[in-house]
Amino acid sequence: MAKGTKWQGIFPAITTQFKVDGSVDLQATQSIVRTLVQEGIGGLVACGSVGENVSLSPTEKRDVAVAIKDAAGGAVPVLSGVAEITTDQARLYARDAQRLGLDGLMVMPPMIYGAAAPELLAYFQAVAAASDLPIMLYNNPPAYRNDMAPELVAQLVPIETIVAIKESSGDTRRFVDLYNAIGDRLLLFCGLDDVILEALALGAVGWVSGLSNVFPQECERMFRATLTGRRDEALAIYRWIMPLLHLDARADLVQCIKLCEAMAGRGSERVRPPRLPLAGEARTHVEALMRRAIETRPG
User: Are 239 and 189 spatial neighbours (Cβ–Cβ below 8 Å)?
Assistant: First the structure.
C-alpha cells in the first residue's frame, strides 16, 4: 500500500455544526470530534457529504477541516472531502489540504453533472497530481450520477497516492468485482451504512459512516465483532440499528443524521439552506425510530 497507509475501522463523516445565525460553529464541531475520538473510532472525514461540503464557502471548508484535525490531536487520521465543480478548484483544495496538515483526501467525482469515463479519469489524475496526500476515491452513483466501475478504477491504480475506495453504490457485489479487477491494491471501505456487515464479509476493511456519529460505541462493537467472528453479537446489533442505518440512503440523510445527533445529545440539527430541518411526517418517522433505538439500546 502506498506510503504504508493503513486506514481501517470506522471513519465517521463528521457533521458541520452551525450557530443560530447560520455561521459555522467550529467549537461545537470540535466537541463532537473529541468525543468520537475518546470512544475509539478509527478515523474521521471532514467536509464530506454529511459535513455539507457544497454548502460551505472555500474559507469555511478549510477552517472546518483544520478545526477537526486539531480536535483529533493526531490520535486518528483525518481525511477531507473534495467536492468541487471544476478540476482547478479541486486541485487547489488538494494542495491547500496538504499545506494545512490533513492526513488524506476523500475525492468525490466532479459535481453537478454526469461525466464520461475519460473525464472522470482526467479529473482524478489531475487531483492526485496536485498533492502528495493519500486519496480515497468515492463512488456514489445514486447521489452523483457518476459510476466508478471496477474497470475504470483499474485504470487509476497505477497512481501510488490513490490507496482506497469508498464504495457506495449499494451493490455489495462490487466489493468482489473490485477485488477481481485490482486484487488488494486498494483498501476497500463501505460507504453505505445499511450494507456494512455484508461489505465486511466481502473484504471491506473500513466504514465511512453517517450513523456512527450517533451511536459510535455500538457501531464499533458491531464492526469488531464481525471481524473477530462473533457473528451473533454483530448480527444482534445490526438488527437493532438497521432502521436508522437505512436513513443513510435517503436524499435528506444530512437532516436525518443531525436530528438523531440532537436527540442523542451529541449535536445540533441545524442545517444550512437550501436544506431545511425535517418536518411533518418525515420528522415524526425519524423521531420514532430514534426513540425506539434509545429504548432498546443494547447493553
Answer: no
